[in-house]
Structure formats: structure tokens, C-alpha cells
Amino acid sequence: MALKATNCLGCGKLFLNPGPNKYCPECMQKREEQMDEIASFVRDNPRSSVREICAALGVKKSLVIAMLQSGRLEESHINIRYPCAACGKMIRQGRYCKACGKKITGEIAESLRRVRENAAQKEKKGIYSKDQWLK
Ligand SMILES: [Zn+2]
Ligand SMILES: [Zn+2]
Q: 40 CA distance to ligand 2 centroid (A)?
């Protein structure tokens, strides 16, 4: 796969991007370190608000939210609400509110079922063509 030059979202520097990264390796490293700092700050100061975290550590609010969305921070440790990625309802954990989460899990289960059905049908066809082959 060809490397693509991308502008880092953090420092604006051009870097060779081996994947869908938004940050250059240095900024990725910095974000990891900041995430560790946030995690330990929240552990020591449960129920901090995002503003308190940002003020104490000098990190971006978006980083704290990214951590919550990816499940790296537990909502019970932090005082925050942010919009559901699907309907915009204010939530405290994950990417979606309960209703959208349920709907999306249902859709995933449904498409998995369809994939499995397709595979089963293909298998049947495979057996059929093998029969043809034997004739
Ligand atoms: Zn950077
Ligand atoms: Zn929702």
C-alpha cells in the first residue's frame, strides 16, 4: 500500500500516513500520554467535569470525549454529557444513546444473519456444482 502524505490534525505537519491516521506519530504519542494523564487524573479526582480536566492538564475537550466514546474512560468517573452520534440526544457513555445502540446492534445482527444466509446458499450451490462435476 502506498504511503499518503497527510497534514497532522494536531500540529499541522505533513507526514507519511500508513493508514487512516489523523495525527503524526509524535502527536499520536502525545495523545496517548495525555490520555494516560487524563485517566489517572480522573482516578484521583472522580466526578471531575471535562472543564476541570482540561484546565488541570491543558488537554483538549475533544480528547476527553474521544476517550469516553472509545470506552477508555468510565462515565461513572466523570461528569459529562455529549450528543449521541446518531440522534444527538445527550448521553454519558459510548457513541450512541440506549435506543440508537439497540437499533444499531439489531441492524448488525440482522446483516450478520443475512451474510450467514448468503454463505449457506453459496455452500448449497457449491454442492450442486460438485454434483454436476461428478456426472
Ligand atoms: Zn502532529
Ligand atoms: Zn441516539
A: 29
What pLDDT shows up at residue 48?
Answer: 85
Instruction: Kindly tell me if the per-residue pLDDT of 19 is higher than 90.
Output: no
- In sequence order, the 6+-apart residues with CB closer than 8 A to the CB of 65 are 50, 80, 82
Query: How many angstroms is it from 65 CA to the middle of ligand 2?
Result: 16
What residues have CB less than 8 Å from 99, skipping those under 6 apart? 87, 89
Q: Can you say how many angstroms the Cα of residue 120 is from the centroid of all Cα atoms in its chain?
A: 31
Instruction: State the burial class of residue 126 (Cβ atoms within 10 Å of its Cβ: 0-12, 13-18, 19+).
Output: exposed
